[in-house]
Design goal:
CATH superfamily of the largest domain: Winged helix-like DNA-binding domain superfamily/Winged helix DNA-binding domain
Oligomer: single chain
Largest sheet: none
Distance between the termini: 74 Å
Helix content: 55-70%
Number of strands: 0
Order of helices and strands: HHHHHHHHH
Radius of gyration: 20 Å
């Protein structure tokens, strides 16, 4: 008598297997992908500047688009990266409708962190991103959170590649400085 194996549950499957099952019409498999990656997609959108409600809406739209195009996912990269790219592009389309993003504009002066942030010794990435100008924040978020190359981000933003690279570099420099800055026991940055 041979050993029988119990059926594998969606939670035990790899993303590539879940995507293949989803492409064959298995909604439970796609639901598992949404469960696994939904918070990461919403987190990316928040880092790009979306408020919580907009992040939820765009994430839902991104997963709907991903479900409709699931057969295009070949497993050559991570599913999370693929769906984040979809979400980032959807957010940019929505963002462009409501706000004119002028990537050629000079960076604004750096906002001071809130007193609450200054009193918190542990600095998280979301708080650190607040020191970036809107242009720097969206470029850094697209390239490092959304997984887009500089060229893809430039195309998505309809901006020159050099401009996107400049915003990313300035943004990363500010983030490095902000995240590396030592603080005293009150949470104030120590200038050495």
């Amino acid at each position: 008598m041979g050993a029988t194996s119990s059926p594998r549950t969606p939670a035990s499957l790899h993303d590539v297997e879940l995507a293949a099952l989803s492409a064959a019409g298995d909604r439970q498999a796609f639901g598992e992908l949404v469960r696994r990656h939904g918070s990461a997609v919403r987190g990316l959108l928040r880092r790009m500047g979306a408020d919580p409600a907009t992040a939820d809406d765009v994430a839902q739209d991104a997963f709907l688009a991903a479900f409709e195009r699931i057969a295009e996912f070949r497993g050559e990269g991570a599913f999370a990266g693929w769906v984040k790219k979809i979400a980032a592009r959807l957010y940019l389309r929505r963002f462009r409708k409501g706000v004119k993003l002028d990537l050629s504009a000079e960076p604004e002066t750096e906002p001071e962190p809130s007193h609450e942030a200054a009193s918190n010794r542990r600095i998280d990435l979301d708080e650190a991103l607040k020191v970036l100008s809107p242009n720097e924040r969206i470029c850094v978020s697209l390239c490092y959170g959304g997984g887009l190359s500089h060229a893809e981000a430039a195309e998505a933003l309809n901006a020159p590649l050099g401009t996107v690279k400049s915003h990313v570099k300035r943004g990363l420099d500010k983030l490095r400085e902000r995240l590396a800055a030592p603080t005293d026991k009150t949470g104030e940055r120590v200038h050495g």
